[in-house]
Records
---
Amino acid sequence: MPTTLTELPAWTALTDHHRMMKDTLLADLFADDSRRGERLNAEGAGLYLDYSKNRVTDETLELLLDLARETGVEKKRDAMFAGERINVTENRAVLHTALRQPRGATVMVDGENVVPAVHEVLDRMGTFADAVRGGTWAGFTGKPIKNIVNIGIGGSDLGPVMAYEALKHYAQRDLTVRFVSNVDGTDLVEKTRDLDPAETLFIVSSKTFTTQETMANASSARAWLLAALKNDAAVARHFVAVSTNADAVQKFGIDTANMFGFWDWVGGRYSMDSAIGLSVMLSVGPDGFGELLAGFHEMDEHFRTAPLEGNLPVLMAMLGVWYNNFFDAQSHAVLPYDQYLQYFSAYLQQLDMESNGKHVTLDGQAVDYQTGQVIWGQPGTNGQHAFYQLIHQGTKLIPCDFIGFCQTLNPLPTPDGPPHHDLLMANVFAQTEALAFGKSLDAVLAEGVDPSLAPHRVFDGNRPTNTLLADKLTPRILGALIALYEHKVFVQGAVWNLNSFDQWGVELGKVLAGKIVPELKVGEEPALEHDSSTNTLIKRYRDRR
Ligand code: F6P
C-alpha cells in the first residue's frame, strides 16, 4: 500500500488525465454534450449546485471520486461524526456536528451522550435571549438592554458577525448589535461611542478566555461601563460570557450563572452554531437560531448519507483538489450575489485557510503537494468593478463559486427598468457564461473592432466556476451553506491527509508579541535582542510615539 498521496493509483491516473485535459475547452465540452448543463448538477439541503462549467469530463469526475475513496474520505467522515479523536495534535474529538443534532439524538463522547448538554445550553440561551429581546433583562439602572456588543476574535467573531449580517432581514431591529474584535482601540471606541452604557450588554466570547485581543477589549469595555455606572455590581447585569473556561470567566468578574458553555470538541472556527452564536440568537430569536441549526443538520445528513456522485461538499472539494493540485491554481474566489452575505468570504477565509493551511501530514511528514488555497472574494456586483478584470483576462487561473438566490428579501422595482433582483441575477448568469466561453478574436473582429485593438478585447474563456442557487436566503439555508463549506474543507483536509482542526501556525506570532509588549512600556525600554530590522523598527516606534 503506497503511503503518500501522490503514489495512489487515482492520483497517478489524474496526473495522466490532466495531460489530456489541460487544453480541453469548456466550449467544446458543451458543444459535444447538449445536455451537459442539465446533467452536471446536484442538490442537497435546499442548495442547487451547477458544476457543469468546470474543466471536467465524466472520466475526470470518476477519477476524482476514486481519489476521495482511496484517501479514505468516507471512513474519515464517519470517524468525525462518531466522535473519534481525529484532532490528533490536540487529542480531541471534532464534533461541531453534534451542536446541531435535534433534541433526542445520541452522540457519544467518552461514554457520554453530549446532545442533552447541547440542548441544555441552547435552552438557557433561549431563555436569556427572550428576556433581553422582551426587555425583561434590565441593565443595572433598570433600563432595558438596547445594545449588544460581542467581543471576540477569529472564530469567536467572524461566524457571528457574518451570520448576524446575513440574517439582518430577520433581526429584531430595535436591538443594535455590534462586534468588536481588533485589539486596535479604535474598534472598541468607534463601536461604543454612541451607546448608552446603561443600555448596553457585552458578550465576551472566547473559547479559551485567554486571547490577548479579547481580554484587552473586555477589560476596556468593563472600564467604559464602570466609568459611567460607578458600581462594580453593574458588571453582572452588563456582561455575559461564552467560553469553555469557567475559571477564567469567574476571575474576570463575570458570574458563571451568566456564562454559556461549550466544549473542547468544538473548534473555534466551527463554533458559530454553539453558544458563540449568542449574539445571532439575540438578533433573530431562538426560533430563527433553531432554523439555522436545522439547516446545518440537513447538510450534515446530506454529507453523511448522499452517494459521493451527488454529494455537494464532496463534489466541491474534489473539484477544488483538481484545480489546486493538477492545474496549480493558487486561489479560489467565493462570490456571493447577495449584499447580506458581505462577510461570507471573510468568514470562509478563516474556516478554510486556518484549517488546511498546513505543511505536514497527520503523522508529521512534510507534504510534497499543494494544500489549502487562498480563499478570497466579496459580494457581486461590486467585485465586478474591482477585480473581475484579472479573473477574466489575467494570467492566473482562479476557480470561482458564484452564490445566488432566486427570490430576493428586498423586492425593489426600478422606476423605469427591470427590478433590482433581475439586474443582480443577470450578472451571475452573465459572469459564469463569460468566464466559461469567453470571446474569440474572430468574434471581436466581426464586430468591426480595429485589428490593432482586437487582442485587448479577446476573452480566452475556459475559466471554471461553480454556481450555487437557493430559493431564498433564510436562516435554514444559511446553516446549510455554512455546513456545505465546513464539509468541503473537511474533505480536502482528508484527501491531503492533514489535521484540519489545529492551528499551530498562529502561535509563534502570539508568543513573540507577548515578548515585545513589555519592551514597549514607556519608561522601561529594555535593551533589544531581536534581529537588526525588528530592533530598528521598535526603536523608531519608541522614539516617535
Ligand atoms: O487565531 C487563533 C484562534 O485560536 C482561532 O482558532 C480562534 O477562533 C481564535 O483564535 C479565538 O480564540 P478564542 O475563542 O479562544 O478567544
Note: The chain has 20 helices and 13 strands.
---
Amino acid sequence: MHDELYPVPEATAKAALIDNDKYLAMYQQSIDDPNAFWAEHGKRIDWIKPYSKVKNTSYDYHNVSIKWFEDGTLNVAANCIDRHLETRGDQTAIIWEGDDPADDEHITFRQLHERVSRLANAFKDNGVKKGDRVTIYLPMIPEAAYAMLACARIGAVHSIVFGGFSPDSLANRIEDCRSSFIITADEGLRGGRKVPLKANTDKAIEVAARDGAVVDKVIVVKRTGGDVTMKDGRDVWYHEAVAAASPDCPPEEMSAEDPLFILYTSGSTGKPKGVMHTTGGYLVYAAMTHEYVFDYQDAEVYWCTADVGWVTGHSYIVYGPLANGATTLMFEGVPNYPSPSRFWEVVDKHKVSIFYTAPTAIRALMGAGEDYVKKTDRSSLRILGSVGEPINPEAWIWYYDVVGEKRCPIVDTWWQTETGGILITPLPGATALKPGSATRPFFGIQPQIVDAEGKELEGATEGNLVIADSWPGQMRTVYGDHERFVQTYFSTYKGKYFTGDGCRRDADGYYWITGRVDDVINVSGHRMGTAEVESALVAHPKVSEAAVVGYPHSLKGQGIYAYVTLMEGEEPSEELQKELVKWVRNEIGPIASPDLIQFAPGLPKTRSGKIMRRILRKIAEDAFENLGDTSTLADPGVVDDLIENRQNRA
Ligand code: ATP
Ligand code: MG
C-alpha cells in the first residue's frame, strides 16, 4: 500500500484559494448548517429572482424528492456568458484546439454571446420551444458548446450523445427522451479519421421511427465538407440557419428546478440511465467545485480533456468554467495523434495551467514511454487532475513525477454522472496527497461506509460507499422513470444515496475507492476490491494495463482471473505468467494470487475509456453467449479476441 504522504507544495500553499484550516472550517459549517452554507454560496451565480428557500430534500424511500433553491429563477447561459461581458468581454472564453495541430481558434466571451444567441434563435426559428429535448450529436468543436448554451438560453433540455456512439445507441437515446430535434455535423474528425455523424444520424432516425419517435429537424454543422444527404424540409445547414437568425436573444427566465439536461450514463454496469439534472443547484455546484477543486484563478488557461458527451465535459469544460469566467480549452483530437506528445504540446502551445484527464489516458501515455513527455516544456502547468476510474498508484506517481515534475498537486476527483459534480477530492492548497486516494469530501458531502446490511461503519474500515444527505448538484430523477431512480439509488440502503462503489477509509479519514461493489471478489471468504489486484499488476514494469474479475472456483468460491495488457514491445510467455503471479503474491499476499492470467492486446472499454468488467466477468465464467448490452463498447473487436483466447474452458 502506498500510504506515503505528499504534502502541499510550498508554492501552491502560498497561492491557493483554500488552505487546510479554511477547508476544515468550511466543511464543518457545510455539515452543521447546510441551509446557511448554501444560502451563502448560492449567491456565487446571478439570480433573476433570488431564492428564499434553500434545501428541500428527502431521501425517504417512500418519497424521494430533491429540490434546491426552488423559488429562485435564473438563466444558465446568462450566467456563463452575459454576466461576464462587462468585465471580460474580450477575454478568451474558449480555446479550441483542432484534431490537426495547425487548427485552433480563440473565442471571446463577446463572440460566444453572439454565436450562442444566433443559434438559440435558429433553434426557435426551427420550432424548438422551452422544455423540448434537443439531441446534440457533435464532435468536439465549439458548436457543441454553443448548442448546449443555446438550449440553456431558451430553456430547451439538451441530451448529448457522444460522437463515437453508433446509430443504434443514438436511436435508443432519441427514443428514450422523445427528442424531435437533433444537431449534428457532416463528419467528425479524430486522430485523422473521419466519423460519419450525419450518416449515423440518418440511420438512427430510421431506427427510432420504428418505435414511433419522430425527428422534425436536424441542424447540420459543416465540419469536414464531406458528402452528406440533406433531407428536404427536415435537414438544415447550421451556417445558413445562424446567418438568418437574429443575434438578439433575451435569456429565458427559468426556475431553479427546471431541467437543464439529460445525460445517459456511460453504461459500464448495464443499460444507460437518463440522468436528469436541473438548473440552479447544478450550476452553483459545478461552478463552486470547478473553482475550489482546481484552485482556478483569474486569467488562467484550464483544460479538461474529456468529451462533452460525458458529464465531465458538461460540468468541467462548459458549465463550471464558463460560469466562473474561466478560459476553457476544448480539444477535438486524441492523446496519441499525431504522436503521444500531443497533450503536452497543446499544454505548451496554449500555456495551460490546469490539466484534467482520465487514468486510461495516463496509462496509455505511460506505456508509450516518458521521452514523449520530457521533450516538452510543461512549465505552465500548476495543477493536474484525474477522473473516471480509480487511478492506480503506479500511474499516479508517473503523472506526478514525470508530467508534473513533482511540482503540481494531483486532484483525484471521485464523482459520477449522477452527482453532477465532484464529491470526494483533494483541494490543491489544503490536502496532503496519497497516490490512489480521492482523499476527503468536498463541502456539503457526507460520505459514509456501510456494511451489506446498511450499518454505518466507523473509523478505518472498508465497505459500500453511500452519501448521507443531498447536495445541490445531485441528479433529480431518471428521465421519465422516477421509480427507477428510487430503486437504483435509494432502495439498497434506505434513507441514503447508494453510489454503487466500494470504498476504504484509512486512519487519516482518507477515502479510497476500491471499484464498483459488483466487482468485489470473494476468495475463500476474503473480500477483495479488484482495484487493489489491478494496481499490483500494473506496478510490474512489463504491464501496461490490467483488469481483474472473479469467476466460480470449486475450492475457493471465487478465483481471480486477470486480463493483462503488456507494455509496447513486451512478449507474452508462460514464464511471464508465472512471474506475474509471484509478483502479486509478493505485493499483496498469497490470497490475491491470480489463478488465471490472460494476455490481451486490448481490453473492452466504454467509449469514455472505462474497462467494462461486466463483459470480462462473463468471459472469465466461460459464459460469453450472453454479454448483455454491448452498445457502449468502444471497439467490439476486442471482445472476439478475448473469447478466442479465454483461459477458463469448461
Ligand atoms: P454506469 O453507471 O452506466 O454503469 P459509469 O458508472 O461508468 O456507468 P459514470 O457516471 O461516468 O458512469 O462513472 C462514475 C463511476 O466512475 C463511479 O461510480 C466510479 O466507479 C468511477 N470513478 C469516477 N471517478 C473516479 C475516481 N476518481 N476514483 C475512482 N473511481 C472513479
Ligand atoms: Mg455508474
Note: The mean pLDDT is 95.
